[in-house]
Amino acid sequence: MHPTIKVKLAKCRHFIRGGNRVFIMKGIVFTELLEMVEEKFSADMVDDIIDDCDLASGGAYTAVGTYPHEEVVALVAALSKHSGISVIDLLKVFGEHLFGQFAKGYPSFFTNITGALPFLNGIEDVIHAEVKKLYPDAELPRFITEHFTDNQLILVYQSTRHFEDLAEGLIIGCIKYFDEAIELQRQNLSNGQARFILTRKANTA
């Protein structure tokens, strides 16, 4: 195991813009992150990044628990240090992983859904409403539909956690799940918001 280097959360403040308020996340996000690290790297890497971080939880998470989102930030920052992969890219990969696990764990959410655009258009009113039933205390981001047709969807992401890269990874995971030819563009807005423009590619066959 690599020598322990304590990573203080203060060093990660350029990733956190929530002021003094503590934002919490459901434990399933943490357990899935560590599962992804073990799957894509190794069990030793899991131990290394936990040892590197000064975590109030000690790195012991349960899927139904709630924990400060700063611990996710610290773990991803530590993983970036050990792997040499940027935090941005790691969050996108994690987003893809999360969507895949979500699809496996909640197949009923995909019943009668014809593709990525209608699925993502229903996140706010359908998916998040159901997630709230399962996890009433979950603090969920918002995905506001600005425009929706059969061939294009424009979503605005809003969250106090400023995980735009994670959101982009989730959207990429959704596109891959439905195996569709969709172009994804992102426009960064103020206050950590982001606009995602999904356009179905023309069928040239």
What does this structure look like?
This protein is α+β, with helices and mostly antiparallel strands and 205 residues long. The protein contains seven helices and six strands; from the N terminus they run βααβααααββαββ. The strands form two sheets. Strands 3-4-6-5 form a four-stranded antiparallel beta sheet. Strands 1-2 form a two-stranded antiparallel sheet. It is globular and about 50 Å long. 31% of the residues are buried. Mean pLDDT is 84; it is low at 1-22.
Helix content: 40-55%
Mean pLDDT: 84
Summarize the helix and strand pattern as letters: EHHEHHHHEEHEE
Distance between the termini: 53 Å
Task: Write the topology of this structure.
Elements: E1 24-26, H1 27-40, H2 43-52, E2 66-68, H3 70-83, H4 87-105, H5 116-121, H6 123-134, E3 142-148, E4 152-158, H7 164-178, E5 182-188, E6 194-200
Antiparallel strand pairs: 1-2, 3-4, 4-6, 5-6
Helix pairs in contact: 1-2, 1-4, 2-3, 4-7
